[in-house]
Amino acid sequence: MRVGIIADIHANVVALAASSLGRGRPGLLAPLLEGYRTTPPLLAETFAWMILFYLQKNLALPNSPFTQHLLPIVAELDKIDDADRFMERHMGRA
Asked: What is the domain extent for residue 62?
């Protein structure tokens, strides 16, 4: 049961950070993670996946205002091609 709760919190933190980044409000991930003593496992991969998920979701919505924020972020992820480096770049952006 405890593992499920931690996984849910982990997913919620990543979803909130990715959603915030997609709305043009970067820099939320680092403050959200301050309460953790260690980085949750697969955090970078989950963060990258969530960015891609939000892009796919917003591309399916005609005239989504968030697509314009997500496209360059996903292009950056593709260029970096490293989930850990991508997450580090977006941890403290203000």
From this structure: 2-91
